Amino acid sequence: MKPLGFTLDEMRALLEATGRLDSGDELPPEKREELLERVRGFEEVARQQVADLRTQFVRAEKFAAALAERLQRTSTL
Question: Which helix (H) or strand (E) holds 34?
Answer without folding.
Answer: helix 29-75
